[in-house]
Amino acid sequence: MKIDSLRNExxxxxxxxxxxxxxxxxxxxxxLNEAVNSDEKEPTAMALSTIGADGFPQSRIVxxxxxxxxxxxxxxxxxSEKGKSIEKNPAVSxxxxxxxxxxxxxxxxxxxKTSKEISLKYFQSRPEESQxxxxxxxxxxxxxxxxxxxxxxxxxSSKFENESVPLPPFWGGYRVNPQKIExxxxxxxxxxxxxxxxxxxxxxTIKRLAP
Length: 211
Fold this sequence. Notes:
alpha+beta
């Protein structure tokens, strides 16, 4: 397969300091709304990167479920590989890629667990099958087969058949409190626009970076 000649030109839009909001969360909300209302298939999908126990970076796709000026929230199994990595080193990064809009957002910050109330509220909003799946999967551990996983699902489906599925004690949310947020817009000739917000106490400084 020859891939070195594959190339797309980015002509959708551009960024100027003037048209960027002073508040990076408001700017993110604007871009997220545009992604949701576009042809992006998974507008809330983001790559979460952590440092694993072996010292190597690890990335996986998770879904953004909440955000405000306190940070960006996703939910997972606290005993998973990413949960263990965050416990050891809470410095993480998030990366959104919206190819239809020729945009990326990169976020560097510190992750911490959300309150149990936030985790419970979101857990109860999930489809019942997804609630059961949280109990059935010992995420990131080795399992003998697909059949074993499906047996676990049936086991917990039967266990909670006549009751509300409770919040697993090992499952909940993380909030990433950002220190840097970069907005990237593709431009022609790879002269892409990059606008970086950096936290300085309660304020944010804004700068343009070379592509």
